Automatic annotation (TrEMBL):
Coiled coil: none annotated. Pfam families: Evr1_Alr, Thioredoxin. This is Sulfhydryl oxidase. It comes from [Myrmecia] bisecta. SUPFAM superfamilies: FAD-dependent thiol oxidase (SSF69000), Thioredoxin-like (SSF52833). Residues 1-97 form the Thioredoxin domain. Keywords: Disulfide bond, FAD, Flavoprotein, Glycoprotein, Membrane, Oxidoreductase, Signal, Transmembrane, Transmembrane helix. Residues 106-125 are annotated as: Disordered. Its cofactor is FAD. Signal peptide: none annotated. One of its GO terms (cellular component) is extracellular space. PROSITE patterns: ERV_ALR, THIOREDOXIN_2. The keyword Signal applies.
Amino acid sequence: MEFYAHWCPSCQHFQPAYEKVAAYLNKEPRTPPEVVVARVDCASESALCNRFHITHYPTVKGGRPSDFDLGAGENLEVWNGERTAEGLLGWLGEKVGRKYDLNVPREHAEEQPSSAPARKAPRHPTQVDLADVTSATLLAFQYMVNSGDLLAGLESRQAFIDFVDMLLLSHPTDSCRAGCALVKGAIHQLWPPTQTTGPSPQIREYQICGMDTHVQDWHSCKGTKPNSRGYTCGLWMLFHTLAVRTEPADRGGALWMTAVRGFVQHFFQCSECAAHFVEMASQEAAAQVTSRRDAALWIWRAHNRVNKRLAEHESTAHDGDPAYPHEQWPPAALCPLCRLPALEEGGEAQWNEDEVYRFLVKFYGGVADGKRTGLGLLGRKQLAGDRRVSHTSVITNAAIFCAVVGGLSGAYRLRRVALMRLRKSPSAL
């Protein structure tokens, strides 16, 4: 049984191998012992996956049918081999005492070029899609509160609080900030500091962006292949948007880094993707993130590193979305001044990071609640010199977030760095 999430890139990369094994074992006539191959999408069946203690995707478990029927599956064995069809089939053969020979014809391996007209490449959006940012926020909260065993422990509690605080401080919509304030106000009742088993089930009843806000069909993040883009695209949008809006401008980047790193490490269950992100967020460059500008440029660099890695994978696996190839961003068409002249033909892009930051602020920071167009107040202030936005509510929220971080001991190094920097400035206390 494979436990996966439809939005998880690692699961999507593994899917062809798993389906190849399923096709092989499901061929008629079947020979004993019969092996049944199945899949469960944990994004929509979180309660079922929690019964089997699934903490990352993809997870493959094997056993007798009676072991699955028992519910929790204590007798099931987890497969930790190389994610290939041959590796999985070899493991299954060992379990049932058979030697399988994977000799399935490669269907459609060399398809003739289609006579259908090529799909016109989509236009690049000129501003962040607020609807997709909001949908990603709703799904992130939903996946967090339904993540079962991952909610256990004080570190998970702190990571949850840090992320909610970051949304409260920096989310672009009034409705999501208001919903975060309600969760923040009730957190000590829903999840007392001494409760290490996770929050009360009542936390699932909270609507992080209000009762009237729901997950919509993806807009800018809609792919042309089933399950491509979607949530992961929206989550990147959310991270970028929070980075260019983080407060205070001169030192909010450290708090942003702590919150985003904690969310990915504890609640983003695509195992391979989370491992890569946490590795980047554990390097010295991440520890030096202090300001809003630092955060915006760090997540931009990290996103381009991921794009480069995925582009290399898709060039051989051919499993990407052809209409949305992973490329270095922003493209020259969106920001001509962001790229420096190439030293040689086909060389890697060289960047003017001052112009990149200006672009990021305009693209991700120029929208608030979908009511204003153009750059907006926040973007104009940042481009004029990245001066602090001196709203009383922002200062109050920064003080709340400082108090949360100030009460933490023995947590991540990044959180300690953020706390030291906040203590040096009396204006945040």
